[in-house]
Amino acid sequence: MSTLKTHRVALLFNANKIYDRQVITGIADYLSSTRSSWDLFLEEDFRLRLSGIERWQGDGIIADFDDPAVAAALADSPAPVVAVGGSYGEEASYPAGVPYVATDNFKLIKLAYDHLIEAGLRHFALFSQPVSEGNRWAQEREQAFMALMRRERFDGETFRGVATCAQSWEEAMEQQIHWLQQLPKPVGIIAVTDARARQLLQACMIAGIAVPEQVALIGIDNDPLARMLTRIPLSSVIQGAQEMGRTAAHLLDQMLHGVRLAGRRILIPPAGINVMASSKHESTKHPYVMRARHFIRQYACQGIKTDQVADYVGISRSSLEAYFRRELGCSVHDEILRLRLEAATALLSRGDCNLVDVALKCGFTSSQYMHLVFKRELGCTPRAYQHRAVLDRHAPTVSLEESPM
């Protein structure tokens, strides 16, 4: 019985980024579903370090070519290389001579735009990154956004801001607030990453700009850490990064067995949108209702009562209830409960978790009360909802789209 050859493969990624981690997860998925035997090299702390990579004695490399330093370091690699990165509008921008698996930047922006326009918005903006060689993917998303605005005959605003660090944080917030205040309202904003979207959401909170009534916001990456760090749950486009990892691993596996794939290019479309409160824009006519909902979105899970909402708005409880009935057809308590239910379903969708903890985190007085609300509003128990969500999460993945050779 023949023994499978074990190949030594280097993964050159910065796994502190959610995109890179998802690509690596896709590579692991591929290896677990095939008979391929790889010894994987990654830095112990999962950071990307290129020093000495030219002396690495391995069989193959999968690398993030969004970083120009990586592309340069591997230009003369004797080992087979599969590149992973963003798509480009110009053919000459792609690396020559290596197979390339790309996230489709235009489709990422188009999916976010379609979601915002379906919400009834007619003003749009993009929050990007400062221009640099390492941010070419962000500039490609800018170009995709502006091309889409021209095609749809909208005037789109683009803002890059500054690269954030401890020293520039105050300046960054001031610039973002100033830009937000100048935009026509209501406006739908696409951020090129969830990290940028989180910053902008924080700027809205500081400036008292209602989300999503005045600013409907959506990011890209579906980063759970970014979601946990926002008071208003953040909508996000889900990149097909895991599918990119599986595809890149498959291409390298073929190359390790003698298949020539130089110049092969595969574009992976986004996997969908995780729609949360930050982009659920609804036209609200009365400013009291808008102000109340802005407060409720931030604090619904902290056990707030109707009286506290009325105090924040600055009117009596009975007046606020009348505005809610007229504007939304529900009570203030109904709106608080709806957002608690939304938060609970999001937590349960992540997998196994304690129902008592979920109830506590989402502002329910007890797990029994949460059970009653689920049965009344969704027709199922919290545990049944969780089981169904886990099954849906493991549904078949999207198909690939190949560019012409």
TrEMBL record:
The keyword Transmembrane does not apply. Pfam families: HTH_18, PBP1_XylR, Peripla_BP_3. Keywords: DNA-binding, Transcription, Transcription regulation. Gene3D superfamilies: 3.40.50.2300, Homeodomain-like (1.10.10.60). It comes from Massilia terrae. It comes from the Bacteria. The lineage of its organism: Bacteria, Pseudomonadati, Pseudomonadota, Betaproteobacteria, Burkholderiales. This is DNA-binding transcriptional regulator. Residues 290-388 form the HTH araC/xylS-type domain. GO terms for molecular function: DNA binding.
